[in-house]
Structure formats: C-alpha cells, structure tokens
Amino acid sequence: MNGRTKLAEWMNGFDPPVRQSDFCRHIGIDKSYLSRILGGKQRPGLTVAVQIESATLGRVVPADWVE
C-alpha cells in the first residue's frame, strides 16, 4: 500500500474523519500541497514525510512514499 492510500485511510479512520485543513495546520503545510499529495500528483519531501510519520504515530512512514 502506498503512502497516499495509507494516509487517506488513516485520516478517514476517525469518527469524524480528520479534516485536511486540521491535518495541514498540525504539520505546518498548505492545504493545496496536501491535496496534491492525496491526489497522487506530488509526493511529499523528506521533511514533510517525517512530519506525516510523526502525526500518524508511525502509521505512514517515509518509505511508504517511495515507489
């Protein structure tokens, strides 16, 4: 499973789901950047991949973004 799918599943696994705007604010990125990541148009850089790993408590790791 790739990082995009794992992150989307993680965000949707809460009731209510984690909103993109809240997640962006938490890790300090722009919502349009997260939208491109979740849409498969862009992969996060290493710094953001590490921030995602921290925010998801290790559910989505930097290696998940490497194809």
Summarize the structure in words.
The chain has 67 residues and is mainly α. The chain has a single domain, classed as 434 Repressor (Amino-terminal Domain) (Orthogonal Bundle). Helices cover 54% and strands 0% of the residues. The protein is built from 4 helices and no strands. It has helices at residues 3-12, 20-27, 31-38, 46-55. The radius of gyration is 11 Å and the shape is globular.
Oligomer: single chain
Mean pLDDT: 97
Question: What is the CATH-assigned architecture?
Answer: Orthogonal Bundle
Beta-strand residue percentage? under 5%
Structurally, the number of domains stands at 1
> Rg, please?
11 Å
The name CATH uses for the topology is 434 Repressor (Amino-terminal Domain)
Largest sheet: none
Number of helices: 4
Which structural class do you get from the secondary structure elements? Answer: mainly alpha
Q: Provide the CATH top-level class.
A: Mainly Alpha
